[in-house]
């Protein structure tokens, strides 16, 4: 399933008879048949043959033809080398891989070799999971490359981010793969063929590639880290080692042998994080909204970080909250501390603002693919880190510095970091590209200074020579100009030039030698000028060469201190996250949650951070806080209430509080005591799987099954409207049995929202079930949603009122009330809760008729003829109607 498949369908012509340059293309293509070859030709990268056809379409650029190969015209398209990044970005986004076949020698070297064409080799393969250029990356998201190595029914997973060096591994059951994919959202996946065909991976197929798992992973991994055994890094399963080696091998392959700086792999060792599957993540809109917008997500609402690295760290924490009390409390301590020292906090945040992304700069340095600004990023980043350390050192009074802050403080200033050296060495401002020259400050390197003096001195010498020649040739207006091809030439007016020509050949260093005749001028050179020309060019070349050497020296200096620089960068990101959390809590409306080891859940005046922010943005009514108590004896909250009353918001809000708390942040509530949650399940909102071809009902049942199979007594389940996708009679039965299973067998904390008011009758039968309802009141004939959760089941239903609000015409509503009354009369005697009624033995009802899009209520009414129905059919119809309109308010009957 290597991407992109269209490449495979384009045949590659045989290589025989190729010109020398074309022969190089064939070598590159044979080695990388699944990649587009970007073939360097002068100032362009060209694509040839089938690649050209694909790339021209994908990049929307012109396709042309040049020359012939074996009697066929060669298709061709190209992009300018200086703008190659934007084209790469386009292709990567479309799931292509690109092999960069660049010139790897200078024209001089080629001449010396007497080769017919300049040497070209694949220097790198650009893939979604291995890019390092800022323009190809999202600043605030990690770019995970995930490798999977199967072993019987288990999997080894290793994920690494070449842009920061972060590296994690985990051994997992095959069934847990979808959850891991949902958590990491990898940019690229490596998996052996058979695994790559699994449904979970096929969904991501267009962004993935594969290689075969290596045999001796342990040795190669150890080699990559220059150690003899991996034991020092932690306990890895063989599958984890295989996956990690696979990832490292792949990175090496794409970087043509070079390996970026990688942190030692961290095995999760089963400690793990709060488990959430893909459906839960989507439903809770953690990193982006259901429509894919990051701004309307949990992250978007709570993110107060001021750096991209801080935002990445916060996103990582929200995507994988912790599952142990002590490290969670440690993070809360850090937030508490930064909340208390407000002045220090704002100094830290001011210092962080605009700080460069050291982690990513370091990655580019380690791959030797850096620009001057990357060295500048290390210099400036370390300077900022020192500033932050000084700010923290200024805290003298209580409160005591918590361990996480102390550790970050210690990491901020690397003992022998390259900061002082970089400060001396780097010019300010820095040039955009190394080739531009001027990276190294004057006074740093004596030899470079001397070469530069020579180069610039030669310029002065040119001015002097110009005066000498003007005198010697008797042409006062003589000018020495630089010519691309001929170097320095002395230019004189045409008439003066004619005279010099007539005077004929002379000897000596100043004797004019004719080079060019133009309309009004002539150009000459002479031995002295040619000699000077050579010296200037040489000095310039040598200065450039020396500057490259100095740049490499500075690069090595940074790499020697890489672990310490990476640690300083991580400390900055960590402090950014804690300070941001404190900032959020600074106005007193967020509290430190008490995360306990018991199965508690008691929230006082909790709020939904995203809905609250949206209301504030729209200058709408204030968010109404709600309590939620799921402690022992009332573990299962059965929530009823009409549509639009705020059920979904309440369900999600309590799940989000758990995520925030276990991620180490404060929570939007007055008080919150939250027992540790091991797995969080949220099924709120529409669950269609149009792409997967499963009906709403199938999706709902599959997801419900997942909960019933995986939830434990330490889990939190928030469920909206189970059983909605089928005939209501069946739906009630399913909802009923799910509720019983959660209550009796799994015994987890649950909030269960339902339209089936009948379920509230279970309150008496299930001791830990506590009914609650969304409060609604009537005001001048209109429904007013209070958005407040009250105890007990809804007394009066408002379905008809809500239907009216939604625009269902009044005659339809009146008719609905009549029909319901008739139906209820017919169904009398059939109490759904009576023990005689074979609730679960009833054969499946026919699926509900497809409602015309315009008005489902109308359609439902049109179908019903109360007199022709048996009592049981009447009962079924009642449920169907009620699920559309809600029960009739008692007053209306
Ligand atoms: N606690 C609250 N305070 C203020 N406004 C709220 C509150 N809860 C919900 N709302 C507002 O009410 C709207 C509807 O809420 P929500 O989607 O939770 O209702 P619902 O009962 O789940 O409806 P449905 O059953 O149709 O999905 C929200 O978009 C929000 O604007």
Automatic annotation (TrEMBL):
Record keywords, A-Z: ATP-binding, DNA damage, DNA repair, DNA-binding, Nucleotide-binding
GO cellular component terms, A-Z: cytosol
Protein name as annotated: DNA mismatch repair protein MutS
Biological process, per Gene Ontology: mismatch repair
Coiled coil: none
Start and end residues of each DNA mismatch repair proteins mutS family domain: 715-731
Functional summary from the UniProt entry: This protein is involved in the repair of mismatches in DNA. It is possible that it carries out the mismatch recognition step. This protein has a weak ATPase activity.
The keyword Flavoprotein is annotated on this UniProt entry: no
Family, as annotated: Belongs to the DNA mismatch repair MutS family.
Pfam (any one): MutS_I
Organism: Neoroseomonas marina
The UniProt record lists the keyword DNA damage: yes
Gene name per UniProt: mutS
Single GO MF annotation: mismatched DNA binding
Origin superkingdom: Bacteria
NCBIfam families named in the record: mutS1, PRK05399.1
